[in-house]
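Morning F.,

Quick status update on the modeling queue. The single chain you submitted on Monday has been processed. Sequence for confirmation:
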Amino acid sequence: MYGDETISEEFIAITALFHDLCKCNFYKKGFRNVKDEQTGQWYKKEIYEVEDQYPSGHGEKSCFIVQHFMKLSWDEIYAIRWHMGGFDNAVRGGDFGMSNAYGKSKLAVMLHLADMTATYLKEN
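Structure tokens below.
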């Protein structure tokens, strides 16, 4: 599927479900000392810390993991790989891959917009 072809519900479901698969086993529980402003007492607060066991990029890692179990179409790869849009480190470094992928794949653009909508408009 490229360009003007119909985007199937299956493609939408696959990209929606698996675009953040890279977050599995990415965080670990830890503690941080925090000062209570009212009492001046310090206490340990449970937090989540990053422990990237497979450092290969955000969207890329999701694609790699999924493809151990199923074959992705190019549109699904573009959508999952570039769902972070301008927040992706490659884009901030001047890479043109996202622009090229968005030009080839409406699904990639749609997933990015859905991810931004969920993050900034739907979630608190």
